Amino acid sequence: MASTGQRRKPSWGWKARGSAVLEGFTIPFAVKEDRQNQVGQILKELRTDRWSDWERDDLEGLSRDEKQRKKTTLLTTYRSMFTGPHGVTLKHHDWLPEYVLTAKIARHRLTTSYDTDLSICTVRWRHASGLYGLSFFNNHLDVDARFTSFVVDGELTSRSNEWAVGEKGKGFILAT
Question: Would you say residue 59 has pLDDT above 90?
């Protein structure tokens, strides 16, 4: 067969809305999986089987001005959390943080190829209308991650890692 010089475009098995495969995949499940991805990264980089040294900042009872000050700090500290369609939307003054969960682990404690501290941040946002939003930030990606790790069922980066073994083996796509 003669080659036309064109490459075949890869396709991925995205799930149709309402498909039976997606039963049970709820927002709480997605949040759990995203949090597990963050914790898994910490466990891998520290080479430990447990860690829970989170800094928690509950802003729910604070004034709008105090929440705005925290948002300004988040904008400065985690700039990339405010990119893309989701992040740009959160810049709007009607979105304010309500609960912030952060972790910063010094580079000298990590066993990783990264030359920076590991920074993780999860924010629960509330819109003036009453809607909620979530942001997940992590400045280190798993060094074994590939595009397929995020879009193909059964792919995950924790399968061969003794520190963060993963639970479902269904890949990041189930969380999103």
Answer: yes
What average pLDDT does the segment 65-93 reach?
94
Which pLDDT score is estimated for 73?
97
Residue pair 135/84 in contact by the 8 Å Cβ criterion: no
pLDDT at residue number 33 = 78
List C-alpha distances in Å: 83 to 36, 90, 142. Answer: 23, 9, 21
How far apart are alpha carbons 92 and 36 in whole angstroms?
A: 29
The torsion angle over the Cα atoms of residues 18, 20, 21 and 23, rounded to 10 degrees, is: 70
Side chain identity, residue 46: L
d(CA 102, CA 56): 7
Percent of the chain with pLDDT over 70: 69
Say which amino acid occupies 132. Y
Coil/strand/helix, residue 3: coil
Q: Which residues contact 120 (CB under 8 A, 6 or more apart)?
A: 38, 41, 42, 102, 103, 104, 137, 138, 139
